[in-house]
Amino acid sequence: MSSDLAPRAGGPVAWPGDDDNRYKAVQGKLRALGSALDDAALELESLRRSMQANATRTEGVARDIENADLDAKFVEVTNLVSVALGGAAVEVKHLGATAQETANLTHETRRTHSKLYGALDTIRSNRREKTPRPGFFNR
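^ that's the sequence the OP posted. Answer follows.
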């Protein structure tokens, strides 16, 4: 069993917040968020498989310790590690499902945003004259 909990080079990045609510900027932000969530879901699934494999291996080690007639406390401690890894794998599975669900909702939001505002952006982008911002006539 190995533990590589060191941060990776492509690790978490602070999400930059800004006030840029232009159509293309929002589409870009939604695309980036959806992609990051898809990647996170894949990484979490990989982590879950690794944790589950380690839990199974640890259970085997506990059996080997017991068969070697070593002190029972080592068997118990090793079994506890196996159970903890198995429980953590289940929670990582839930987290991965949540990340994938959020990614799907983000992609759906991007499509809806495109459907609602894409044509308006095309019209506004191709005019030479300035046009009022959305909501200007709602006053």
